[in-house]
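Supplementary Methods. Inverse-folding protocol.

Structures were first reduced to a discrete structure-token string of length 325. This string, shown here, constituted the complete conditioning input.
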């Protein structure tokens, strides 16, 4: 089976009825890129830049960041690279950044909330990203966006950084897509409005499930609630994808659910365009997708969203469909 999968490394990702999708890899550092390529990644769907900050004794400089981003873009040779601005806070701490003691760190000072508050740090990252943009196909993504105002504020700082660089005579690509993570239910609910202003969405189910179900993603005691197949989660995902497509925008998913073999048939049916996962899941997902008919999966997903009330009902539906493959 391994040999069979290996044959798919340089193949496109296509459903049985010929619909082309994109399978990308999640990475944490430039060192992860060779494994992504070796496993057939068609792009990087999530570069978690916080590791650059966490592996450093002090704030990484603009040049240090530039080198890291450029390295990823160059290694990907023109394939799309979605870089997420830093997502510190929650459970991720920095020794050199004083964070407040909070009752609920996952509901507190985190990710874009820190970036919009500490704009010098944010701008340094954005300048590094913009400088790297000429080395490949860069896409910039903001994490933990809850409101349109946050997106607009982040985008304005990005534009400011771009203008500064252009004034300094530094080249910046002019086709950089700017998108957001959908990982807070408020953004998923308001997807229709966001879709008019962003270039793309990437659904972060790790957090989206935790916040929708009010169930800590690390807490075993409430793990029965933390279920990707919950019809409420599927309904949110459908809302996001439909809203984006109505505006001609694409939607990816970079949470664990994107590489979950039971979830993939549903996500194909819901119309997800890009799936980003750990490198080791890519080939088996490509193989699975090649066996799926996108229209049949649409019927399946519609049924899951419209007729199922429980996780068990959704799972039974998917299992039945998988048994027929
Ligand atoms: C997510 O929340 O699904 C996600 C991809 O981000 P992280 O796991 O880094 O919070
Ligand atoms: Mg997240």
């Amino acid at each position: 089976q391994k040999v069979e999968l290996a044959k798919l490394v340089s193949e496109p990702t296509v459903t049985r009825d010929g619909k082309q999708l994109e399978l990308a890899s999640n990475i944490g550092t430039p060192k992860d890129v060779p494994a992504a390529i070796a496993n057939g990644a068609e792009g990087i769907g999530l570069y978690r830049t916080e590791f650059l900050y966490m592996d450093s004794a002090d704030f990484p400089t603009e040049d240090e960041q530039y080198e890291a981003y450029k390295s990823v873009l160059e290694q990907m040779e023109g394939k799309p690279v979605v870089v997420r601005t830093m997502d510190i806070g929650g459970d991720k701490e920095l020794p050199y950044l004083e964070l407040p003691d909070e009752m609920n760190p996952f509901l507190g000072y985190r990710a874009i909330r820190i970036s919009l508050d500490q704009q010098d740090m944010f701008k340094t990252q954005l300048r590094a990203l913009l400088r790297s943009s000429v080395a490949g196909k860069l896409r910039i993504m903001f994490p933990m966006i809850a409101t349109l105002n946050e997106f607009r504020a982040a985008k304005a700082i990005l534009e400011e950084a771009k203008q500064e660089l252009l004034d300094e005579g530094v080249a910046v690509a002019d086709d950089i897509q700017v998108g957001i993570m959908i990982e807070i239910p408020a953004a998923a609910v308001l997807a229709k409005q966001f879709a008019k202003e962003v270039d793309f969405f990437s659904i972060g189910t790790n957090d989206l499930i935790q916040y929708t179900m009010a169930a800590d993603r690390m807490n075993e005691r409430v793990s029965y609630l933390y279920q990707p197949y919950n019809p409420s989660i599927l309904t949110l995902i459908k809302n996001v994808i439909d809203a984006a497509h109505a505006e001609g925008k694409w939607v990816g998913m970079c949470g664990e659910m994107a590489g979950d073999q039971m979830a993939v048939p549903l996500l194909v049916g819901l119309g997800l365009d890009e799936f980003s996962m750990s490198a080791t899941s890519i080939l088996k997902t490509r193989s699975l997708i090649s066996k799926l008919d996108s229209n049949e999966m649409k019927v399946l997903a519609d049924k899951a969203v419209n007729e199922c009330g429980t996780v068990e009902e959704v799972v039974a539906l998917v299992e039945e469909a998988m048994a027929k493959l």
